[in-house]
Amino acid sequence: MENMINLTIDGVQVSAPAGSTVLEAARLANIHIPTLCYLKDVNQIGACRVCVVDVGARALQAACVYPISEGMVVKTNTPEVRSARKTVVELLLSIHDRKCLSCVRNNNCELQDLCRDLGIDDDDRFAGERNHYDVDDASVSIVRDNNKCVLCRRCVAACHTLQNVGVIGPVRRGFNSAIESPWKVQLAQTSCVGCGQCIVACPVGALKEKDSIKAVDALLASGKHVVVQPAPAVRAALGEEFGMPMGTSVTGKMVAALRRLGFAKVFDVDFGADLTILEEGTELVQRLTNGGVLPMITSCSPGWIKYCETYNPDFIPNLSSCKSPHEMLGAVIKSYYAEKAGIDPKDIAVVSVMPCTAKKGEAKRPELSVNGLADVDEVITTRELARMIRRAGIDFANLPDEDFDSVLGESTGAGVIFGATGGVMEAALRFAYEVVTGKELEQVEFHEVRGLKGVKEADIDLNGTKLSVAVAHGTANAQKLLDSVRSGEKTYQFMEVMCCPGGCVTGGGQPIVKSDVRAGVNVSAVRAKALYDEDAGKARRKSQDNEELKVLYKEYLGEPGSHKAHHLLHTTYTARDKYENIK
Amino acid sequence: MPDNKEKFEQLNQVIEELKDQPGALMPILQHAQSIFGCVSLDVQKVIADSLGVTLSEVYGVATFYSQFKLKPSGKYIVSVCLGTACYVKGSQKVLEKLSEELKIPVGDTTDDGLFTLSATRCLGACGLAPVMTVNDEVYGRLTPDQIPAIIAKYRG
Could you tell me if residue B70 is inside a domain? Predict the structure, then answer.
């Protein structure tokens, strides 16, 4: 039993574990203390003073950092406390660009919530001088608008602490404080990996993805044959944008909505994931048997790829040469499918729906093209898809469930779980086991690589052959893993790395979950469960059992790792200098 | 530049001495500034990489404290007194005129490296208020309209 501390909050007796903050203790007693800069486990710095409470001290204290003690008496709802909080928010409003109606976070903004909950009745109370900032929209993934920044530093903590990237931070001081990249460069000039964890950390509209809806609308109006492909993680979260409970899988409705938006074909990146497993699994087995570079590391996550190229270029030879699933499928759409459908590849456009902002940058990489045609033309995030659905007047919740289109629409459970950390590893093991042992895998679930531990390790027994594997999610965890391999402390044959904490289900392009919800729910676990449940319900759970995929290899690609497969499905990487464009 | 190489060697020595103590960034920046006269981008990169912190963090600290300079000071340091007497006598307007004439904000240096504009506290020449100095030369009883001529002298 933990050491418990007894205190009184608003007259209620509360018992909370030693080391808790007042905010945490209040949550146990279902007493709501408003917050703004607080983001559980990410940013707990007491900077904004919105959560102030009376703890009997001379001054009000920030509940998010103030530790509880035995016998403490806390008041969270006195006139003094309410007035102090109100003043804090009114001061923030005095420097805030309040174009709420056209803001991407309208109705999903923590500052708006505070104004409502604290009873702000004059948003011009402290009207006065304001700084005006240029919007930084040079990055292909992320747009920063400091005119809407509340200086909470949640983005900074996400970038530094979760991702170990740290390309934005507080600069100058006092009235001139701002969150910027060093030396006044734009985000695009830094070694930002484009993951978008800053966006999902932002309480307001200061950070958003670079809009691709206009480009997609233009494609749909162009007369081209526009094909769409949603990623595994999208179906586990899209429903949240339409009021469905977190963890609702909306695969069928998502397909129906995409069809109603006017896409000619709705293919499934899960198919691309199955394809990736056959290529990547084959590459792994070849590296194991031919003395190739080990550990081999997965290459599905473009944020991770950019991170590796920039911060750990010595590990580039370890990266699988496989393109990511949607890039693979894009290349197959513009070759195999084009041939089957009798359409000139130049007249086909591929749109990917991704839980990810880094994918926008990935799609623009010149090496991810075949015969001068980009594998993927445009990438929209899960949030952008929701916006398109709303703008089209589609009643999402009442859509029928529809199926993906043949010939690139079938998927197995292995493809589905790509969206969760450990999913690619598990899918690869389901394939590699059968290739290495020549036997059928009976127990397809590898629970040792599931879950949300920062670095997971397992020794997998391939019928006598031991395979040491590791899984990391969030690039700060990935860095620890790489450091342990580099120093020789650890030895693995195969590693999965996903850029975002929790994997793609909590990617930077996913629906934004407010901080008070994040404090009480493990978003990654709830969304991942939707994928694992879908996997468990599938008749086929191994990529090699995908019937349409078998046809693709038989009719077009030949064997996994064939010359043709390499031409279409594999790529190369480039070492990058993190300071290259900072001048 | 052999001169610069020597300075970086000095910097590396300082970093080596201090890097294991908590809060090493501040004293290292101070030493760097005394070695180089400022903490430029190249200097900040070396500090960031040696300490294992981000450039963003180093830049954040360097811009938080007005004591740190990001570029070398100009040949002429123009300091305007904002002490009580000078301020009452209108030194703020003199400062604003200088900022306009030199096309730089207070604390900055002109691109040609000629002038650095700074605001100071009392210079002890209140009898001459408002006062400014250009390096060691003192100018008193200033009015904004005198500024262009004074600056022109130094432009040569």
Answer: no
Q: If you average pLDDT over residues A138-148, what whole number do you get?
A: 98
Which member of A169, A172, A583 has the closest CB to residue B56?
A169
B38 touches chain A (CB under 8 A): no
Q: Are residues B143 and B96 in the same domain?
A: yes
CA separation (Å) from A322 to A29, A356, A400, A565, B114?
50, 19, 35, 10, 55
Is A183 in Cβ contact with B41 (below 8 Å)? yes
B107/B130 same-domain check: yes
Interface residue B59 vs chain A (CB under 8 A): yes
For chain B, the average pLDDT equals 93
CA distance B59 to chain A (A): 6
pLDDT at A1: 55
Among left, alpha and beta (phi > 0; psi -120 to 50; other), residue A41 is: left
Catalytic residues of A: 280, 283, 300, 320, 359, 362, 367, 504
Domain with B134, as residue range(s), is: 76-155
Looking at the fold, whether B55 and B90 belong to one and the same domain comes out as: no
To the nearest 10°, report the CA torsion of A442, A445, A447, A451.
170
Q: Are residues B94 and B141 in the same domain?
A: yes
pLDDT reported for residue B156? 77
Whether B81 and B113 map to the same domain: the answer is: yes
B57–A582 CB contact, under 8 Å: no
Is residue B69 in some structural domain? no
pTM (predicted TM-score): 0.93
Q: Yes or no: say if A433 and A462 are a contact pair by the CB < 8 Å rule.
A: yes
Considering only the beta carbons, identify the residue of A166, A173, A583 that sits closest to B56.
Answer: A166
Alpha helices (runs of H) in A352-450, residue ranges in sequence order: 358-363, 382-391, 413-416, 423-437
- Among the listed residues A331, A119, A87, A86, the one whose alpha carbon sits nearest the alpha carbon of residue A227: A331
pLDDT of residue B56: 97
What domains are defined for chain A?
4-77 (3.10.20.740), 142-209 (3.30.70.20), 214-569 (3.40.50.1780)
Q: Does A181 touch chain B (CB under 8 A)?
A: yes
Interface probe for A, chosen from B56, B59, B69, B71 (most Cβ of A below 10 Å), is: B56
What does the pLDDT read at residue A237?
98
Token pair 């506290």 is found at B121
Q: How many CB pairs below 8 A link A and B? A: 42
Q: How many domains does chain B have?
A: 2
